[in-house]
Amino acid sequence: MPDLSGKVAIVTGCASGIGAATLKRLIADGARILGTDIDAAAGAALCEEAGARFAVQDVSDRALWNGVVREAIEAFGRLDILVNNAGIVTGASIGDVDDDTWDRVIAVNLTGTMAGCRAAIAAMKDNPGGASGAIINIASTTAMAPLPTDVGYSASKGAVRVMSKSVATWCAQQGYAIRCNTVIPGATETGILNAAEEVTPGLKAAVAATSPMKRLADPAETAAAIAFLASDECPFMTGAEMLVDGGALSIHPGF
Question: 8-244 maps to which CATH number?
Answer without folding.
Answer: 3.40.50.720
